[in-house]
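Take a careful look at the sequence and tokenised backbone pasted below. I need to know what the token row says about the fold.
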Amino acid sequence: MEKFVKLTGVAAPLPVVNVDTDMIIPKDYLKTIKRTGLGKGLFAEARYNVDGSENPDFVLNKSAYRDAKILVAGDNFGCGSSREHAPWALADFGIRCVISTSFADIFYNNCFKNGILPIIVSPEELEKLMDDAERGSNAVVTVDLENQEITGPDGGSVKFEVDGFRRHCLLNGLDDISLTLEKADNIASYEEKLAAERPWA
């Protein structure tokens, strides 16, 4: 998993509450188990018209936000079904951080497992960050996980907190498999010991 230490990029505003996982990645895109290629389906029902053309009013279709790396969203982001394709689609599009006042639990956990940092802020802080994000190409924000701080385009900052273990995993690019592999020597030693003690097993 790619490490997340410090991220600087354009923040896109999505002032919508209760954005569910079906809005993030519609069910039509769930036929694959690959983590790549899903970026084209991110927010598909809002990004594209019925004829497949782009909806010019959707934020990620606007020139200033096409390469957004951060999403500033309304309350209860990632609710609905537990599809892991939602963080896969965000990551494949290039979004590495989502900021909101709250997240659905399963989506929140899935973000950390896929290299995305979900940040919880207060409603007042979200309002400030949403204002920063609405500055178009000037909406450049820095998210510093090491110092747990978001810095806006004018230099103002917002502090945030992340669970210590999850922070460690993101800073070091450790997913569940990587964490298991860190114990490879212990696992091998245990298997050897077990084989010696129970040769019939």
User: Anything to note?
Assistant: The first helix runs from residue 21 to 24.
